[in-house]
């Protein structure tokens, strides 16, 4: 009888060991599945973020080049204004500059 009990105990231990191994394998498989799922989710988020940044970049590029004609016109207008200002100032002081130059050229120092 004792040997029968010993056989039953060994059988129980083997069954428990097999059950434990099955549980460990199931946990490993579940972990691998979850890691794959997490990687796929992360890849999806990265792709969405990259697409968003690309859209923002393209919008900025189109904004800066889309109204380049307006920028050119604005710059031309500013340039014309500055040229006009310089010509006005030059005309205003040109007589004084000419007089000063004539004074220094015609004055002889000892």
Can you walk through the features of this model?
This protein has 110 residues and is mainly alpha-helical. It has 2 domains: 1-66; 68-110. It contains 2 helices and no strands. It has helices at residues 2-66, 68-106. The longest helix has 65 residues, at 2-66.
Rg on CA atoms, Å: 45 Å
Portion in strands: under 5%
Q: Which percent bin holds the helix content?
A: over 70%
**By helix and strand content, what is the structural category?**
mainly alpha
Q: Mind describing the biggest β-sheet?
A: none
Shape: rod-shaped
Number of DSSP-assigned strands:
0
DSSP summary: helix tally: 2
Order of helices and strands: HH
- N-C termini distance: 144 Å
Number of domains: 2
State the low-pLDDT regions, or none: none
Mean pLDDT, rounded to whole units? 87
InterPro entries: V-ATPase_G
Protein name: V-type proton ATPase subunit G
GO molecular function: ATP hydrolysis activity; proton-transporting ATPase activity, rotational mechanism
Pfam family, one: V-ATPase_G
Give a quick set of tags describing it.
single chain; 110 residues; mainly alpha; 2 domains; 0% strand; transport; V-ATPase_G
Strands, helices and their partners?
Elements: H1 2-66, H2 68-106
In short:
With 110 residues, the protein is mainly alpha-helical. The chain contains 2 helices and no strands. The model has no long low-confidence stretch (mean pLDDT 87).
